[in-house]
Design goal:
about 80 residues, four-stranded antiparallel sheet
Length: about 80
């Protein structure tokens, strides 16, 4: 399992548009992709779970990947977070 912590810098937090793109990016990988905030974990391949976390600007999330392509997934999704959120 790979894991990174990221602080959201988008003024609107994780909202519908970037959440939708993040879901599509996560779906490219066979690994399990989890986003956690304040002890609550959701499948990053499901938009309702992602939006349901209610992540605001300045809050920390933990991105976790587990599976055969976990290294590629954590690298690509970590880069996505830095560039978009």
């Amino acid at each position: 399992m790979k894991e990174i912590t990221y602080t959201i810098t988008d003024p609107e937090g994780i909202h519908a548009r970037p959440a939708g793109v993040l879901v599509k990016e996560a779906a490219k990988f066979t690994s399990k992709v989890i986003i956690a905030k304040d002890g609550k974990e959701v499948d990053a391949k499901r938009i309702l779970g992602l939006i349901g976390l209610g992540v605001k600007c300045g809050q920390e999330i933990v991105l976790k990947t587990e599976g055969e392509d976990e290294d590629a997934a954590i690298e690509a999704l970590g880069k996505f977070l830095e560039e978009n959120l």
